[in-house]
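Private note to self, pasted from the team thread so I don't lose it. Backbone tokens:
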């Protein structure tokens, strides 16, 4: 347990960040699941729409600092390959 005032503050800050990051990552996984479910249903229009939403969530997480930019880039690339393969 932290005893110094600065350590207590860091603990409070890290807890806030952890909860914010968890919410952001949960939103990302939900968006990606929607893309896969629409691909499974062979629905190209909704797949494209959910794909755009997933990209927006990933980019937003990068800007907030809860996800590394290369991780987001890799996930976007993999999603794009799957969406394009199903739609084409």
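Design output:
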């Amino acid at each position: 347990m932290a005893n110094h005032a600065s350590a207590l503050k860091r603990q409070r800050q890290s807890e806030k960040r952890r909860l914010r990051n968890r919410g952001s990552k949960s939103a990302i996984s939900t968006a990606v699941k929607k893309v896969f479910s629409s691909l499974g249903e062979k629905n190209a229009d909704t797949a494209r729409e959910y794909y755009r939403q997933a990209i927006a969530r990933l980019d937003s997480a990068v800007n907030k600092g809860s996800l590394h930019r290369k991780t987001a880039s890799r996930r976007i690339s993999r999603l794009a390959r799957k969406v394009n393969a199903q739609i084409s």
